[in-house]
Amino acid sequence: MDANYCREKAALCLRLADGLALNNPGRFQLMDLAEDFQRRAKELEIEAARDATRSNATVMQSLENVA
């Protein structure tokens, strides 16, 4: 599961919620799901950025050791 997948699911939940009546309990559940998917997408992006930073640091350290 990646951030794009979570964003797509959040958008789908919001589209489905928009099709329901304002007082429909399912609407609120879908909106909550959309928020959860958006939150997870942010977490995955942060995690990916950290991993990329660690990878770059490891590569730089390896290059320094070779030189």
TrEMBL record:
Coiled coil spans: 27-54
Keyword vocabulary terms for this entry: Coiled coil
UniProt-recorded name of the protein: Uncharacterized protein
Source organism: Candidatus Acidiferrum panamense
Taxonomic lineage: Bacteria, Pseudomonadati, Acidobacteriota, Terriglobia, Candidatus Acidiferrales
